[in-house]
Amino acid sequence: MPRQWAELHPDLLRHIYTKLYDPVDFICFRAVCKGWCTGAPPSERPPQFPLLLERNLDHKYSSEFKLYSLPTGKTYSLQLPEAQNKMFFGQLEDYLVTFGAEDHDCSPALLNPFTRTELLLPFYNSYYFIPLYIGTTDPIRNPDSVVMLVYCPKRGHCIGFWNKNEDDWGLRGDSCLQRIIFSGPVVCHKGRLLFIGYSQHTIYKCRLYAIDLTTGGKLFDVGLPSQMHHFDCLVNAPTALLAIEQHNLYSDGVPLEECWFEVYQLEEGEYPPHWTKLSNIGDLMIFLNSYNGFCVSADGFNGIRENCIYFTKLNGNEHNSRRLIGRYELGEERSEVVGLPRDTNGTWIVPNV
Predict the structure, then answer these.
(1) Tens-digit pLDDT profile for residues 326-345
(2) Phi, psi (5° rounding) for residue 148?
(3) Is 174 helix (H, G, I), strand (E, B) or coil?
(4) Do 180 and 199 touch, CB atoms closer than 8 A?
(5) Fewer Cβ atoms within 10 A, N terminus or C terminus of the chain?
(6) Which of 314, 206, 239, 330 is nearest to 277 (CA)?
(7) How far is 132 from 187, CA to CA, in rounded Å?
(8) Could you read off the pLDDT of 253-294 as tens digits, one per residue?
(9) Which distant-in-sequence residues (6+ apart) come within 8 Å of 1 by Cβ?
(10) Which residue range or ranges hold the KIB1-4 beta-propeller domain (predicted)?
């Protein structure tokens, strides 16, 4: 390498690498030479924009994945042998929650798709596990507790707890969980299980239920906003719970530009809690997956728009379709296409490498 490139001033190096929001670009930057590696320490890693994790759809439970970077438009191949013949349900902290796709083995596990580190959790005869909470920042190195919503054939919905000192799941949940029918999104917010559902006595009249994760008992329930029948997504924002209602996202033949969203915030300052419709979420960006989503602050991302929702939509018909990435701007109430991933399905994840 020419000497002048290897000896760029540290301030100039920092001006460059702090704008590398794609984690692969940051890794490549540090690999250029010893001086650049020293000048761009991992402790000063720039904020990392969420990636779209896509699975090879030619094989339903393949170990072949792709990562799509929206800021750069680049696609990276990723081999995850640990995910072979496994399904996964979104991201919890830095890990995907996976479970076996075979009828005889649905054992859950935590898998970091970037380091390929896997933590196997105890087997339990359950129809599914929905991740809620991990008790430490890195459960692989120092697992404290893992909390899942578990649906058991005999007990119905329960809250399952596991920690490093136990060989089995501890299940909690009173009769409230058995009486409520889950009908959509589930999220953990401020130590509580929050979900949309309805009781057996008020069929199809959905409400938001709050369950204490420690006891499994009901804390409160609140109706949805007037004229609202259902929420499609619950999002754990930094200061409050957000609920998202989508329009036209799953309508065949409707272009992405005609998709729009409503955002509501749960106000808990006064009892009973109530909903407030938002037209501005400040510097936040919301990334939507099926039934769940997460927030990322746009602060620190130079040139990245705030107060918006990122989503994916299938464009075309069942024989000739492609999933597009859209961005809905709440202030302007407008959707536009911002990305073209290669495959037809994907999950937004936050990289941590």
Answers:
(1) 999 998 999 999 987 665 56
(2) -130, 150
(3) coil
(4) yes
(5) N
(6) 330
(7) 6
(8) 888 999 999 999 999 988 889 999 999 999 999 999 876 789
(9) 32, 33
(10) 67-317
